[in-house]
């Protein structure tokens, strides 16, 4: 692991790091905020998965999480959203919703993407091992949250690993890639035409197939331009209701899809995570 930068902030340290990923076959960049802590003390870890077009930098610069993480003494990790670099295949049209910046937190099975687009394994396995080795982290206390494509990532990763994440939340998540244009495009390209194979990457399908979490927090702005065509929180409500999966969905009047929305409610989400990670 190489350190790109560190800055003292809110009593702790905001760092940006790179490392050679064996899963993606590329150099990957991520950011970590570590609050002030006693020597030898290990802190809970909250993962933040970003949305389409993002790198680690979007939430790091615009997420307003540091004061809340310092107050609760939570480590905050922000990975990139896809492999990048020389030789990494992209969407032929350089579209924003597939390829670079749009890894969808899957392990691709389809050429030419299968070799590098392994963001599921990267976020579920490789990066947690690095965080455990390099930072003062208590990996028995992890939470996960995300935005839009990253909300989809957070929900699906948690539903597949219910014993690992003690707190789960999302901002304006894609709740069912099986039922929206972004998801259909991404999963066809990365996983192939067999929609049964997509179910491991669809929060609603995972719940319908039996996955459960103690509870979920979702915030969704009513003025979000992607609400009706792509995000469809009503599908998650119907699925959770039918499955007795506890869900707190808060429709936030007038908020859009941007980091102005995310940063407004970041404190509530970190309160939610802290309450569950300290239990
Ligand atoms: N056409 C837009 C779409 C990109 C966009 O809105 N990206 C969101 C996430 S959308 C779902 O995953 C985002 O977080 N953007 C970064 C930001 O800092 O706001 C475009 O190309 O801009």
Please describe what this structure looks like:
This protein has a nine-stranded mixed sheet, with helices on both faces. The protein has nine helices and nine strands. Helices cover about 35% and strands about 25% of the residues. It has about 280 residues and is an alpha/beta fold. The chain has helices at about 55-60, 65-70, 120-135, 150-160, 180-190, 205-210, 225-230, 235-245, 260-275; strands at about 1-10, 10-20, 25-35, 45-50, 75-80, 135-145, 165-170, 215-220, 250.
The second-level CATH architecture is 3-Layer(aba) Sandwich
- Proportion of β residues? 15-25%
Domain module tally: 1
CATH topology: Rossmann fold
Cofactors and ligands: the ligand N[C@@H](CCC(=O)N[C@@H](CSC=O)C(=O)NCC(=O)O)C(=O)O
Spatial strand sequence of the major β-sheet: 1-2-3-5-4-6-7-8-9
In the CATH scheme, the class would be Alpha Beta
Radius of gyration: 17 Å
In whole angstroms, the N-to-C terminal distance is 32 Å
How much helix is in the residues? 25-40%
Total DSSP E strands: 9
Mean pLDDT: 98
Which spans have pLDDT < 50 for at least 5 consecutive residues?
none
Structural class: alpha/beta
Query: Tell me, what's the shape?
Result: globular
Biggest beta sheet summary: 9 strands, mixed
CATH-assigned homologous superfamily? Alpha/Beta hydrolase fold, catalytic domain
Number of helices: 9
- Sketch the topology as an H/E string, one letter per element: EEEEHHEHEHEHHEHHEH
GO molecular function: carboxylic ester hydrolase activity; S-formylglutathione hydrolase activity
Protein name: S-formylglutathione hydrolase
Pfam family, one: Esterase
GO cellular component, one term: cytosol
């Amino acid at each position: 692991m190489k350190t790109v930068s560190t800055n003292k902030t809110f009593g702790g340290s905001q760092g940006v790091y790179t490392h050679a990923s064996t899963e993606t076959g590329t150099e990957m960049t991520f950011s970590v905020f570590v609050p002030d802590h006693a020597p030898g003390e290990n802190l809970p870890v909250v993962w933040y998965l970003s949305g389409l077009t993002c790198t680690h930098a979007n939430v790091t610069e615009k997420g307003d999480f540091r004061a809340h993480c310092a107050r609760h003494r939570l480590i905050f990790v922000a990975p990139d959203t896809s492999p990048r670099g020389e030789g990494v295949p992209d969407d032929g049209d350089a579209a924003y919703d597939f390829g670079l910046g749009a890894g969808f937190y899957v392990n691709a099975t389809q050429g030419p993407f299968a070799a590098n687009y392994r963001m599921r394994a990267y976020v579920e396995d490789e990066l947690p091992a690095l965080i455990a080795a390099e930072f003062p982290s208590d990996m028995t206390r992890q939470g996960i949250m995300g935005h839009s494509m990253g909300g989809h990532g957070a929900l699906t990763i948690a539903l597949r690993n219910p014993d690992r994440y003690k707190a789960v939340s999302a901002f304006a998540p894609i709740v069912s890639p099986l039922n929206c244009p972004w998801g259909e495009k991404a999963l066809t390209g990365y996983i192939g035409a067999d929609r049964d194979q997509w179910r491991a990457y669809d929060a609603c399908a995972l719940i319908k197939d039996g996955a459960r979490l103690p509870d979920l927090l979702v915030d969704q702005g009513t003025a979000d331009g992607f609400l009706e065509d792509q995000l469809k929180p009503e599908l998650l409500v119907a699925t959770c209701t039918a499955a007795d999966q506890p869900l707190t969905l808060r429709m936030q009047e007038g908020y859009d899809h941007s980091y102005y929305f995310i940063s407004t409610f970041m404190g509530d989400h970190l309160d939610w995570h802290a309450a569950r990670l300290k239990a």
